[in-house]
Specification:
By secondary structure, this protein is mostly helical. The protein contains 15 helices and no strands. The protein is globular.
């Protein structure tokens, strides 16, 4: 990062922090903090105020490139305040059509070293990361390194990013891809993986049920719970672990 760029980023971050702090709403922080197990460090700004900041940055710095937005995003996430993460995502979203494979690789850095809550993770996985898959800029091979990231949020993203391409990719390939996540130690990864399996079940119920039955003794129970949520109580009994924890 060049000195001028570093100064530019700090100027943007300083302006944003001043703007958000001046419009802090402690009541919002209290209201939403209960949804975040990992903590919720925020000013309590409304989404409309973050959008206003996005527009101000675009107006004041119209020549920011996608690579610069990625670097700025790294710093915004490191700042720690919730609004700063949202600001990073919204800024990149405005330039998504100009993004390429290098941008996708840069997003992994956001997850690895910046993203620290489910809201930012799922915002990215619903609006940003699937676009690269839908446009065939990347495929499952490029997403595979996310499975072994040290960050639980990156591993969660490896599953949740696939929800929007559940009809585009072969279900067999998706099931094979997420198999390493079935025994992941983190709850947030279990939730994301189970969510994907539940969505896949809506399109390919038999194949997903066969997959779950095969892994019923080793997969995290929360994954099974999420994935079979739409089944009846009697149907869910099929996916209980064997008494000895061995596949029959």
């Amino acid at each position: 990062m060049h000195i001028k760029e570093a100064q530019l980023y700090q100027e943007i971050i300083g302006n944003a922090a001043e703007y958000f702090a001046a419009r802090a709403k402690p009541s919002n922080v209290l209201k939403y903090s209960r949804f975040f197990r990992e903590g919720y460090d925020a000013w309590g700004n409304d989404v409309s105020e973050i959008k206003t900041m996005v527009a101000q940055i675009q107006s004041a710095y119209p020549d920011l490139s996608v690579s610069q937005l990625l670097e700025l995003g790294n710093l915004l996430f490191q700042h720690g305040k919730y609004e700063m993460g949202n600001l990073a995502i919204m800024l990149l979203e405005t330039r998504l059509k100009d993004s390429d494979k290098a941008c996708f690789e840069g997003l992994k850095m956001w997850f690895d070293f910046g993203v620290g809550n489910w809201a930012h993770a799922d915002y990215l996985c619903s609006r940003i990361t699937p676009w690269f898959l839908q446009q065939q800029i990347v495929g499952l091979p490029e997403l595979r390194p996310w499975l072994s990231s040290a960050s639980r949020w990156t591993r969660r993203a490896a599953a949740v990013s696939l929800i929007k391409v559940k009809r585009q990719e072969k279900v067999e390939d998706l099931l094979c891809f997420i198999e390493p996540l079935l025994t992941d130690p983190e709850r947030v990864v279990h939730q994301g993986t189970g969510w994907l399996l539940r969505e896949l079940w809506k399109v390919h119920p038999q194949k997903v049920e066969d997959f779950l039955y095969l892994h019923r003794n080793t997969a995290a129970r929360l994954i099974i719970q999420y994935a079979t949520e739409k089944l009846s109580k009697e149907e869910r009994l099929r996916f209980r672990r064997d008494k000895k924890g061995k596949i029959a």
